[in-house]
Design a protein that fits this description.
Helix content is about 40%, strand content about 15%. By secondary structure, it is an alpha+beta fold. A hairpin with a 2-residue loop joins strand 3 and strand 4. The radius of gyration is 22 Å and the shape is elongated. This is Helix-turn-helix domain-containing protein.
Length: about 180
């Protein structure tokens, strides 16, 4: 099972974005038959199979085993990933995004789309992906965004100079700073 499945095609989005299918997919977090899923959801195995077939056809789930139950072959299915993301490229940017500079929302949105695409492309077969995530909250007085960005840029340039050699594994570093909707939460 992949960590992330990035939905790139409309057919995949259409197969997923139905409430009953999302519930079926949640049930397939571990391998299960349509009978088992139907029992958990209070639906017939045939109804569940209809949804499972749509998910399998879209690549969002897969048959992982088959067993014989009372003379009938019963498929065992599992979700293809733990998380499903709609690719920003699915719809694309409508109109022209306004990117004035590194302080603009358009620049941040472009960066986030790039990060999402990169994360979805990571190889889930690698047991221990060398990743690092840091999150925190800062409070900037009005008008200090530029000064903060300059300090951050200087700090990052120092890190790049000390650790940015031509050899070794390549990593992407993305830093995002945006207003928090409810700062007291």
């Amino acid at each position: 099972m992949k960590e992330i499945f990035c939905i790139e095609r409309f057919e995949q989005a259409e197969a997923l974005l139905k409430p009953q299918r999302v519930e079926v997919l949640r049930q397939l977090a571990r391998p299960r038959s349509c009978t088992e899923v139907g029992t958990a959801l209070g639906q017939s195995p045939q109804r569940v199979y209809y949804h499972v077939k749509k998910l399998v056809d879209a690549g969002l789930a897969a048959q992982v085993d088959e067993r014989r139950v009372r003379g009938i072959h019963e498929g065992v299915y599992q979700a293809s990933a733990q998380s499903y993301w709609l690719s920003p490229r699915l719809v694309g940017t409508i109109g022209r995004r306004r990117v004035r500079d590194e302080l603009s929302l358009g620049y941040l949105l472009n960066l986030l789309e790039d990060v999402q695409t990169d994360l979805a492309a990571l190889d889930p077969a690698i047991d221990e992906l060398a990743t690092l995530a840091v999150s925190g909250e800062i409070r900037l007085p009005a008008g200090n965004r530029g000064e903060f960005l300059d300090d951050l840029r200087t700090t990052l340039q120092d890190l790049f100079a000390r650790h940015g050699g031509a050899e070794g594994d390549a990593f992407r570093l993305a830093v995002a700073c945006y207003p928090k909707e409810n700062p007291d939460e």
